[in-house]
From TrEMBL:
One of its GO terms (molecular function) is oxidoreductase activity. Pfam families: Ldh_2 (PF02615). The keyword Ribosomal protein does not apply. Signal peptide: none annotated. Keywords: Oxidoreductase. The keyword Signal does not apply. Belongs to the LDH2/MDH2 oxidoreductase family. InterPro entries: Mal/L-sulf/L-lact_DH-like_ah, Mal/L-sulf/L-lact_DH-like_NADP, Mal/L-sulfo/L-lacto_DH-like_sf, Malate/L-lactate_DH-like. This is Malate dehydrogenase.
Length: 362
């Protein structure tokens, strides 16, 4: 069952929880802002639903509360960051802020980060650039989850890609895993005891897994040696474009782990405390190509032309960012959506840390 909760009250609870772990006031504010931003935009798989995973990582030492990101190589337009296993959101904000600074000074900034942690939705970081009138891109590798085309074992991560560009009436944001869906969406369906609606998970290379009662198969998604994995964008057949999602996942690997000399997907495991995911952050100032305002206006007209195309009866044409904007207005007014199991997890964490949660859930 899912219910609605006031976003401001839940943000305050998340802020107190991270202070309870020992994060600073500023860090706790950044973490609460990012997680609630995610839920406000309708992406429940990566909002407060992820608190339990981060809690586990903090307790076992995979996330190190007092670590700070370090610049280990830098040029005018680029940098490599060693995050020293700090919480991924804090590393992401630090890295994107640096890329934005470089883009403002030199027209472009590219930062790649190693030894980080799960950083939530890639689109949040791309949007940080767009909020300042810039084009932003971000991506992240992860532990093996994707089945390469014709393979029976996962090898590539979900490896999301995000792109954000200023537009009217709101920012264009494209954010997607290079698998058909992210791992977190599978977790949400399991919590709600819902069958998967499409070929999101396969075993033995091409056998669909749908039934939520097949818990052995879903549990095997965490086992790189199991014959179960997430389908790439395009499914599990070249006829439907499986090789395209697979190829995009490899490109993400280049911009994250290969360029940073960090851990590739197959070297990342939930239990190994000496490895962490890698991320990339790219920012471009449209002004290096011409009048920024005219470029954004032209892009906005282009998007509006798409929205106004003839649509299938009963359907609406959306461009990327439209649904998120609609979700934000709804959730800001009526509350963010949290399922009962996730709420129990949040209450459990707050109780252990001695944080009062009553105001947020009543």
């Amino acid at each position: 069952m899912v219910k609605r909760y006031d976003s401001d009250k839940m943000k305050q609870l998340v802020f107190k929880i991270y202070q309870g772990y020992g994060f600073s006031v500023k860090q706790s504010e950044q973490l609460a802002e990012m997680l609630i931003y995610t839920d406000l935009h309708g992406i429940e798989s990566h909002g407060v639903q992820r608190l339990i995973m981060y809690d586990d990582f903090i307790q076992n030492g995979k996330i190190r509360v007092h670590s700070k990101p370090e610049i280990v190589k830098e040029t005018d337009v680029s940098a490599v960051i060693d995050a020293h296993f700090g919480l991924g959101q804090l590393n992401g904000i630090f890295s994107m802020d640096l890329a934005i600074k470089k883009a403002k000074q030199h027209g472009i900034g590219i930062v790649t980060t190693r030894n980080s942690g799960h950083y939530g939705i890639a689109g949040y970081y791309a949007n940080l650039a767009a909020e300042q009138g810039l084009i932003g891109m971000s991506s992240c590798n992860s532990r093996p989850a994707m089945l390469p085309t014709h393979a029976t074992k996962a090898f590539v991560g979900t490896n999301p890609i995000a792109f954000a560009m200023p537009a009217k009436p709101h920012t264009f944001i494209f954010d997607c895993a290079t698998t058909t869906v992210p791992q977190g969406k599978i977790e949400v369906y399991n919590k709600l005891e819902k069958d998967l609606p499409a070929l999101w998970v396969a075993k033995n290379g091409n056998e669909p897994v749908y039934d939520h009662r097949d818990q052995a198969d879903f549990a095997a998604l965490r086992d790189p040696e199991a014959n179960v994995g997430l389908a790439p964008l395009g499914g599990v057949s070249e006829d439907t474009g499986s090789h395209k999602g697979f190829g995009l996942g490899i490109i993400v690997e280049v911009f994250t782990s290969i360029l940073s000399m960090g851990n590739i997907s197959t070297e990342i495991t939930p239990d190994d405390l000496s490895v962490g995911p890698c991320q990339s952050f790219t920012v471009i100032d449209p002004a290096i190509f011409g009048d920024k305002d005219k470029i954004i206006d032209r892009f906005s007209r282009y998007l509006q032309d798409i929205r106004e195309l003839p649509a299938i009866p009963g359907k609406t044409i959306y461009v990327h960012g439209d649904k998120e904007a609609i979700a934000y207005e709804d959730r800001k007014k009526n509350g963010i959506i949290i399922d009962d199991r996730t709420l129990e997890e949040i209450v459990g964490i707050a109780t252990r840390l001695g944080v009062d949660y009553a105001a947020a859930i009543n």
